[in-house]
């Protein structure tokens, strides 16, 4: 993640110089509205990112960018639509690691390959997840929690928003790093998961930080740590799990990026990347995303593609070790 952030910073310096050349190469594109597919229902983190960038991207392109929410199957319905769409730059995906990389590793029914069938355009950034627990647990920090889990193998439980989601993989990574046995309880959504955690029906949960933060700030749950390697700027008082020696290898977030069908012409991809870089440089856009816990780190297509390959390899190791299957 740190390597990507450094590379993204360097790439952004040349963004403006490329704008004129790229716009000329892309010709008249776009000449009609663009559909931005989100593989989830409205209100989630991917949808929030899409609705933050879409209006500004439309202004820069001179055409409206219309969001289409296609929820279901862990984002794969939306991703499948984009994979099968005409590669002309008019059907795009605001994607995340779940539907781009994880789905095909955990579900044999997923027929597309995110690395092969989608063209990376611009990496937007990442949002941390957080391990939270019910207040009745005696463990006051992550170190005590790992000790408690080791003393009671399989007795503690953790919730996620479903099998094969980034939350599930983060939970399994915590188990693998901490060498503990905690039972996974998959839920169909974050709302039911939070309700049961607050009611004490479940011991622990891995949640997206933006969803968990109101509960943490109100003192309704205990925050054991964020899943990225450093503390989140939006919640500096919540430690990183990696600060605990036995969990030093925990560094995983939910990432977001703009993508297109694989055969999309390079001039179109470059034009979209140039305009997205400019959108993500706008202070009001960065502020809104930061308030939702998203660390903006815009990167170009090549950097984004390298990042996806690296993350997919990490996901594969977690999935195979935990034998995660839908």
TrEMBL record:
<protein>
    <submittedName>
        <fullName>Tripartite tricarboxylate transporter substrate binding protein</fullName>
    </submittedName>
</protein>
<dbReference type="Pfam" id="PF03401">
    <property type="entry name" value="TctC"/>
</dbReference>
<comment type="similarity">
    <text>Belongs to the UPF0065 (bug) family.</text>
</comment>
<keyword id="KW-0732">Signal</keyword>
<dbReference type="InterPro" id="IPR042100">
    <property type="entry name" value="Bug_dom1"/>
</dbReference>
<dbReference type="InterPro" id="IPR005064">
    <property type="entry name" value="BUG"/>
</dbReference>
<feature type="signal peptide">
    <location>
        <begin position="1"/>
        <end position="25"/>
    </location>
</feature>
């Amino acid at each position: 993640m740190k390597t990507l952030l450094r590379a993204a910073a360097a790439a952004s310096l040349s963004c403006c110089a490329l704008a004129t050349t790229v716009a000329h190469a892309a010709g008249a594109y776009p000449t009609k509205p663009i559909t931005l597919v989100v593989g989830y229902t409205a209100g989630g983190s991917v949808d929030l990112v899409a609705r933050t960038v879409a209006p500004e991207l439309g202004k820069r392109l001179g055409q409206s960018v219309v969001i289409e929410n296609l929820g279901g199957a862990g984002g794969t319905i939306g991703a499948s639509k984009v994979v099968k769409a005409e590669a002309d730059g008019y059907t795009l995906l605001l994607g995340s690691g779940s539907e781009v990389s994880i789905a095909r590793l955990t579900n044999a029914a997923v027929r597309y390959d995110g690395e092969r069938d989608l063209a990376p355009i611009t990496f937007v950034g990442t949002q941390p997840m957080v391990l939270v627990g019910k207040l009745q647990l005696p463990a006051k920090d992550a170190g005590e929690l790992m000790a408690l889990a080791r003393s009671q193998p399989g007795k503690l439980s953790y919730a996620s928003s479903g099998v094969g989601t980034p939350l599930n993989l983060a939970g399994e990574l915590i188990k693998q790093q901490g060498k503990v046995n905690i039972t996974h309880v998959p839920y169909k959504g974050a709302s039911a998961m939070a309700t049961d955690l607050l009611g004490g029906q479940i011991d622990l949960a891995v949640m997206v930080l933006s969803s968990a933060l109101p509960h943490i700030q109100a003192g309704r749950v205990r925050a054991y740590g964020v899943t990225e390697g450093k503390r989140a700027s939006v919640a500096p008082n919540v430690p990183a799990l990696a600060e605990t020696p036995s969990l030093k290898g925990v560094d995983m977030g939910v990432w977001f990026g703009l993508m297109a069908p694989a055969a999309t012409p390079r001039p179109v991809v470059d034009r979209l990347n140039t305009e997205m870089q400019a959108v993500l440089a706008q202070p009001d856009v960065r502020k809104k995303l930061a308030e939702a816990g998203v660390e903006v780190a815009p990167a170009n297509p090549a950097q984004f593609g390298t990042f996806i390959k690296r993350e997919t390899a990490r996901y594969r190791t977690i999935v195979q070790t935990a034998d995660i299957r839908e």
